[in-house]
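BUG-495 | component: ligand-complex export | severity: low

The export step for adenosine-5'-diphosphate jobs runs without errors, but we want the raw record kept on the ticket for reference. Input record follows.
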Amino acid sequence: MQSGKNNKKSPNTLTILIIGVIFLGGILAMVATGDIDAKALLTQITAFVVILVIILLISSIVRSRSNPQPPPQMQVDLGIEKDFIIRPTTSNVTFNDVAGISEVKEELVEIVDFLKNPKKYRDFGIKLPKGVLLVGPPGVGKTLIAKAVAGEAGVPFFYQSGSSFVQMYVGVGAKRVRDLFNKAKMMAPSIIFIDEIDAIGKARGNMRNDEREATLNQLLTEMDGFEDSSGVIVIGATNKIELLDDALLRPGRFDRRIYVELPGLKDRLEILRVHLKNKPFRGNLETIAQMTVGFSGAALASLVNEASIHALKKGKLYIDESDFFAVKDKVLVGKKKLQTYSPQEKEILSYYQATKAVVAEWLGVDFERITLVKDDFKEEDKEIVSRTELTNKIAVYLAGRVGVEEKFKEKFSNAHLDLKKARDLAMKMVRDYGMGNSLVASDEEVGEILRDAYQQVVEIYRTNQEMVEEVYKLIMDREVVHLEDIKKIKEKILG
Ligand code: ADP
């Protein structure tokens, strides 16, 4: 490009030189023959300058037409491609560095074994998932877990963030995906970790975005293209699985999903322990775990760090609880999105969940455990479900609202998701299953189902308030209650 410019320049310089020489020659000739006065000389020079300017103008216009600048997009693309080098890292993180979340680790042990001994699995013709999706809020350790899998298996770890694929220019993302998979296959067994995969895999919906679509299609093609036994495992992470394109979740792609939740009391204690391992801490960790409801692993890690700095600044030899108290709010301010609860909010949530748990147990709606922030009611896997089973489920969705309203004589906004579930289910019963009074669906019938369920819950609550109170205390204390606990409390109270 540079040499082309020079070539274009030289004829102009030559023209100017020739004209200059002719003019100067003319003037010199006139001066030599004594044929010129001062005025004529000035006119000659002015004419020379004017002609020179005109020539320069014309030549620059002609040049810009015949030799347009390359579009800025091409230049930028080249820059990006040069910077984008796919290099794996070697992870020295192990499962010991990941505190708590034992269920998540258990699920991944098999994958580690597969990466270590792919032949063993191949010989038996066993197919393992190509893609594992880690679903959970930010900072709960999804990246850490993926690194631990790579570290445990001793395989190369390819990290990419979903947003790094989605560039402004069509084709770049798809090429990156292709390069990434090629490299990973070359170095198999290996792990590809794609953080924030929703940046690529957002459901396509109405909004068209050619680049993202091209990138997503390339990712799907790559995942379909490699053999189950190739030894490449793709781990994706997202906190918005509901936004993901269905195509990504189909069999043979990210068909294994692992949910990573905010740590409960026990896990918070373990995470604090891991991060305080080589630090001089003296005090009661339990207290700190108690006061950090809603903290993610990342928030706990930065809490430990801030507390250590605080102790150091104070010139102390040991870190203790007071350092944690002093910096707690600072950590919270830094993490605006962090979910934390005031003591009063914790009471409301605990009572809400306690009522839900008691009503669910009473009506036989199955669950294993209910935590301060989450329940895990089993999805129906039956083909045919009765009206009674469905209304029981609605009753459970309404239970938290009923309990809290009865107890605190006030309604709170935390019920909104459950209320939506209740409404949606009632609507489905009336519209799709014809479970209203008539086969012609009406809003009135939806309302009636909800009202009946509400009334039923009020009755269950009033007769079992003592039980709700007991379960409430348990959740306040431990943040979790298991179905077994409720059965025990029930036996104790009812005899
Ligand atoms: P995510 O990928 O879910 O956003 P990260 O894996 O990036 O979360 O976690 C950020 C940091 O938080 C980790 O590097 C680690 O220091 C800390 N952390 C998160 N979860 C845990 C855990 N279970 N045990 C120990 N440390 C954790």
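Assignee comment: Attached the raw record above. The first strand starts at residue 89 and ends at 90.
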